[in-house]
Specification:
Number of strands: 9
Helix content: 25-40%
Strand order of the largest sheet: 5-6-4-8-7
Radius of gyration: 21 Å
Number of helices: 9
Shape: globular
Length: 275
């Protein structure tokens, strides 16, 4: 048994969902059945939970505490190639504040409650008890890793873990801003929204979320077509906000889309509509 698998089993025994990382600190690629999310992504991905594929697929969703899965095939092959161990913080009720450089660490020492810390190559991980939404680049050099992401295991750290403070939760709260409208006015509308009602917009976003959630295959195409439809109906008048877009991105990520694919699909839809 190699060192990484031994570490993984010890963590799993403590209720920490773990997974192997290959060179470059990245997850193992999906198996042939799940490649490019042809399987539709992890089933029932509306809430964080384990991948149902027997391979170490779908990144964070593959993290598990089951020793039989960790030691059985095909995971045993992955552990032979693994370069590190990762875990799903939100899966065990934790949040990692990833501080990527000295200035970020200094900011945390001024602004955040002390908690357990783990040294990293360039900074520190501050670990709090409690789960929340994850987000990258909430400040310069600071990422929040909790639900639906993985974090590299770098050791138990030092200090007493404290409860997740509101100051950390507030880092991912952004004030909604309007999506940039196109310069050309809406046909016959002089550029003003003809349906600026909360009920109409909410119904449109909810239907789009449902359409993505119910797709059984061709996730990439479904996400793009859905984004295109939403932007076509609501994107030209300024009533669509970043909060609405984030709901659609979350629905797409729940079906296995990567953040990059979501951004690409959104950008391509904007371009197709001349926005």
């Amino acid at each position: 048994m190699n060192t990484h698998l031994r570490t993984a089993l010890a963590l799993a025994a403590r209720g920490v969902p773990v997974m192997p990382l290959r060179a470059g600190k990245v997850p193992f690629g999906n198996c042939p059945v799940c490649r490019d999310n042809a399987c539709g992504g992890r089933p029932n991905m509306k809430t964080p939970g384990p991948c149902e594929c027997p391979h170490p697929c779908h990144a964070w969703a593959a993290a598990t505490t089951d020793p039989d899965v960790l030691t059985g095939r095909p995971w045993s092959t992955a552990w032979q190639q693994a370069q590190a161990v990762a875990y799903h913080p939100g899966g065990c009720g934790l949040t990692v504040v990833d501080l990527d450089h000295a200035d970020a660490v200094a900011w945390a020492r001024r602004e955040l409650p002390t908690t357990r810390t783990v040294p990293t190559t360039r900074g520190q991980h501050w670990i709090y008890q409690g789960a929340m939404s994850s987000a990258n680049a909430v400040r310069d050099g600071i990422d929040i890793k909790s639900t639906m992401v993985y974090s590299r295991w770098l050791g138990p750290g030092t200090g007493t873990m404290t409860a997740l403070p509101d100051a950390v939760r507030a880092l991912v709260v952004k004030k909604p801003s309007p999506v940039r409208p196109v310069a050309a006015p809406m046909p016959g509308g002089g550029g003003e929204c003809r349906h600026r009602t909360p009920v109409y917009l909410e119904r449109g976003i909810a239907m789009a979320e449902q359409r993505i959630a119910e797709t059984a295959g061709g996730v990439h195409a479904t996400v793009y077509r859905t984004f295109l439809a939403v932007l076509s109906a609501h994107g030209r008048c300024g009533c669509l906000t970043d909060a609405h877009a984030e709901r659609l991105f979350t629905a797409a990520r729940t079906k296995g889309e990567s953040a990059r694919h979501c951004t690409d699909a959104w950008s391509n839809a904007l371009t197709a509509l001349g926005m």
